[in-house]
Amino acid sequence: MSTLNPRQLEAMKYIDGPLLVLAGAGSGKTSVITRKIAYLIEECGIKPHRIFAVTFTNKAAREMKERVGKLLSGKNAQGISVSTFHTLGLTMIRHELEAAGLKQNFSILDSDDAQRLLADLLHKENSPAADRKEAMKFIIKKISDWKNDLIQPVQAVSVATTNEELIAAQIYEAYQRHLRAYNAVDFDDLIAIPTRLLQENQAIREKWQERVHYLLVDEYQDTNTAQYLLVKLLVGARARFTAVGDDDQSIYAWRGAKPENMIQLTHDYPNLKVVKLEQNYRSMARILTAANSVIGNNPHVFEKKLWSQHGLGDRIRIITCPTDRDEAERVANDLIHHKLINSRTWKDYAILYRGNFQAKAIETQLRELQIPYKISGGQSFYSRAEIKDVMSYLRLIINPSDDSAFLRIINTPKRGIGPTTLEKLASYAQQRGVSLLTACQEFGLAEALGQKKALVTLQEFAQWLEHHTREILETTEPVPEIRKLLNDIDFEDYIREQAPTPQGAEARLENINFLLTSIQGMLNKAESEDDKNIEAVIRKLVLIDLLDQQAEEDDSDRVQLLTLHASKGLEYPHVYIIGLEEDLLPHRNSIDADTVEEERRLMYVGITRAKQTLTLTLAERRKAGGDFRSTMPSRFLDELPHEEIEWIGRTSTRTPQEKQRIGAAHLANLRALLK
Ligand code: ATP
Ligand code: MG
């Protein structure tokens, strides 16, 4: 275990009053928190259940718990509360149900549920709204802002200055009434309710202040007003807390986070001790220079210096690719190549992006190359319902024994096969030792089912699928045949019926199109006859799912895919940041709203996740809504120090022999993984 440096030790041992650790990325702020928890328990004799630590994401909370667990013997770690602000708020509400005006088993509306309720209310109260979608967006944001600022509906009505705000305030009032009636809360309430309880109820306040002996807050720069107050009220006048943060990593202003809260601390607590850390233990020096150089373009409240004792490291690579598909391909190939040459593990690599939509091209490439990956904080493209449906048809086509694929599609779209029929079919198939699909065609099924109509439907389905299977497997152009199959079942209509909104339906159809185009792309570029067939392509796409089922959830060895926002606080030996283009990073909205500084902090967060190497990529043309659009390189690329970077053009320098060698080595690797 590493030894803390003198400043870190000072921060760990200071427990007499409020403490702020203000320091740049990778300087050991989170390490101070975890070590301090151990110190409080082992050296200061504080009971674990009276120590509370809060951080920003569930992933960060899990990691912090793990780190603390390793520092303490198992028993000592029991009872410490390490959680997100929202989970802490939820715990408090559960303890104070009556005061919160809630009944047991209250429900927590997710953002979809909340939006649905708001849409109903908007419809009722304000029927002529011409552009309801825009109005909805405004209202959702406004209500969330009010809650984060602890503004109640009555106050909202009085502070509203425009007509839109007034409407939003009225809807807010109705929304709260409905939540109450449904015995429900939303996400923002998880913070707002306990904060208000502490503010207004002395007994509750005293009880919690007594219980919370010491509070530690990570990523303090991203607290909003309600969270700031929650901390303040929980620690009370004794103010036994440690907050750690980095104003340069404040990336949640759009959700109401106020980095000014760090300055506010110095006003609220005149005896606040501030410790600054300057040594970065995470990154090679070049990466750090790049990070410092980019963030140097933002104005600064607190001056910070960061230095590293690690060596210079490789230059930062910037790879320009012709299109976004090429970008994905390049990243996946580069990653495999790097891994094999340097004998690393998959989990040493992270691919970061600005928007979740960027992940699907990467996912598809990783699948094609059989690289196991994990998406954090977002849905995998391949676990979307519409993609699973299409993939299930394809799975059944290449493998008629795939019963789970059969069960997924037999009623997608509806064919009127009831659960009783399926049960009979399954038990017949089991008796006979055949697959569900084969069972549909067997003579004996008639007796087992005892029902003519269901039998005919199953037989027709099997025959129909057999026909399409032949068409798809026996042609040299399988993708148009797959489209025919989907047309045959009116899949597009089915999607339109299922999707909650027309936009949702379009997005799903676009996803299906993306899948089919990807399959076509894989067929086109297959180099050997073995790869150039639809069965091989589908097998490749589904193999990763099989690996997933085998692998243990979290400690498995996989490449990490996540948004820049979700990457905060985490670190990886090798990092790729993709899509370094104007309008993407920085995001279009931030350019329009003149908030590029926040995007620059996001870029800083991304760069500082890397320990050893950093690769940035961009596409010259990107597909958006069916068309290719030309892009401009991100302004952040110009802000990197020229002497530390290496620009790489579009041409691949790898010879066919080299490719083959990498391919063979990779296959051996994969076999080992599957064993
Ligand atoms: P971020 O701002 O990204 O959240 P951080 O300031 O919280 O970063 P940590 O994650 O705590 O930084 O630490 C970064 C890395 O440096 C970790 O791998 C940690 O183990 C290591 N580290 C921290 N302090 C020391 C030390 N004194 N000696 C050696 N390694 C250290
Ligand atoms: Mg940290």
UniProtKB/TrEMBL annotation:
Q: Does the keyword Hydrolase apply?
A: yes
Record-level GO cellular component terms: cytosol
Which keywords fit this entry according to its UniProt record? ATP-binding, DNA replication, DNA-binding, Helicase, Hydrolase, Isomerase, Nucleotide-binding
Q: What is its EC number?
A: 5.6.2.4
A Gene Ontology biological process annotation? Answer: DNA replication
Top enzyme class: isomerase
**Entry binding sites for ATP:** A23, G24, A25, G26, S27, G28, K29, T30, R282
Read off the Pfam families from this record.
Answer: UvrD-helicase, UvrD_C
Q: Which residue ranges traverse the bilayer?
A: none
Q: What molecular function terms (GO) are annotated for this protein? A: 3'-5' DNA helicase activity; ATP binding; ATP hydrolysis activity; single-stranded DNA binding
Q: The UvrD-like helicase ATP-binding domain covers which part of the protein?
A: 2-284
Q: Which reaction does it catalyse?
A: ATP + H2O = ADP + phosphate + H(+); Couples ATP hydrolysis with the unwinding of duplex DNA by translocating in the 3'-5' direction
* Start and end residues of each UvrD-like helicase C-terminal domain: 285-569
> What's the subunit arrangement here?
Homodimer.
Q: Which PANTHER family match?
A: ATP-DEPENDENT DNA HELICASE REP, UVRD / RECB / PCRA DNA HELICASE FAMILY MEMBER
Function statement:
Rep helicase is a single-stranded DNA-dependent ATPase involved in DNA replication; it can initiate unwinding at a nick in the DNA. It binds to the single-stranded DNA and acts in a progressive fashion along the DNA in the 3' to 5' direction.
Q: Which family does it belong to?
A: Belongs to the helicase family. UvrD subfamily.
| Protein name per its UniProtKB record | ATP-dependent DNA helicase Rep
Biological source species? Fluviicoccus keumensis
